[in-house]
């Protein structure tokens, strides 16, 4: 029982760490600070809600697999049985860790269709931020290091 509590605790840590990763337009990555960004003016044509699928870096599966294998192996006193239980618990832990990582990194987002001043159109998907964008809003598209975000234009 104590081993399963360790597994749950470890997977919870993976979930929390995964939740720290965000694509929110309100969060600027450290590497993007103090860098010149390209800015384009535009007008929002439409905004629709989307979901950005969670990531699967393998960290959740690795942690879950190791913890599951250790827990399964240490939970048995018979050598052959311990090996089989270790393998089965490792596989189950890896699957659980992968699912937790994927679920905890999933984000609610918006797809914003913008018409630029020159007539070109752009579609940008970004996590929901503190600003609510709507059709007709004047916006700026900020591009820094290959990353793009949309924000309301200053008045």
Write structural notes for this entry.
The protein has 155 residues and is α+β, with helices and mostly antiparallel strands. It is 39% helix and 29% strand. It contains three helices and five strands; from the N terminus they run H-E-H-H-E-E-E-E. Strands 3-2-1-4-5 form a five-stranded antiparallel β-sheet, with no helix packed on it. Helix 2 runs antiparallel to helix 3 (79-104). The longest helix is centred in the middle third of the chain and has 26 residues, at 79-104.
Q: Can you summarize this structure?
A:
With 155 residues, the protein is α+β, with helices and mostly antiparallel strands. It has 3 helices and 5 strands.
What order do the helices and strands come in, and which of them pair?
Blueprint: H1 2-19, E1 38-52, H2 59-74, H3 79-104, E2 107-116, E3 121-127, E4 138-144, E5 147-152
Antiparallel strand pairs: 1-2, 1-4, 2-3, 4-5
Helix pairs in contact: 1-2, 1-3, 2-3
Shape: elongated
Radius of gyration: 22 Å
- Report the helical percentage: 25-40%
Please give the alpha-carbon distance between the first and last residues: 60 Å
Sheet having the most strands: 5 strands, antiparallel
Percentage of β-strand residues: 25-35%
Given the helix and strand composition, which structural class is it?
A: alpha+beta
**Helix-strand pattern:** HEHHEEEE
Low-confidence stretches are 14-20
Q: Give the number of helices.
A: 3
Average pLDDT, to the nearest integer? 74
Side by side, the strands of the main sheet go 3-2-1-4-5
When the domains are counted, the total is 2
Count of strand segments: 5
